[in-house]
Amino acid sequence: MSRGALRILLVDDDAELLCFVQRFLFRRGHDVLTAAHGGAAIAVLEGALQGFDALVTDVQMSPCSGWDLLSWVAEHMPELRCFVVTGFGSAIARQLSQDYGAEYLEKPIDPALLAERLERLW
Q: Could you give the CA distance from residue 96 to residue 108 in angstroms, rounded to a whole number?
């Protein structure tokens, strides 16, 4: 990886998955913050003193879904690179991800594959 550490916001309502992926990416040298749903992620993004390189989000969350989050990002931070990671994979989810300009991955997520996809962007 030529760029160095990435600053990543990881969003999922599965606390175990968040912790596991956060630790994996941290061990690879990245700065990873987490949020439990889209609304919490928006609060993190709005309050951040330093920008993020990438957003990785699940889609099926409440009270604010990943799709709601991606819509907000498209309006307020269109330069932010986004990744959709979902356990409810479908052609529609894949197309929506592409419509938002997001990379698409299905669960169960291989953290090494996610890291490679993130690092390949820089």
A: 19
Q: N- to C-terminal Cα distance for the chain?
A: 7
Element (H, E) at 106: strand 103-106
Would the pTM count as exceeding 0.90? Answer: yes
Show the CA angle centred on residue 12, arms to residues 9 and 16, nearest 5°. 105
Determine the residue type at 82.
C
Confidence of residue 3 (pLDDT cuts 50, 70, 90): low
- Pair type for strands 81-86 and 103-106: parallel
Whole-Å CA distances, 81 to 7, 10, 62, 93: 11, 12, 22, 17
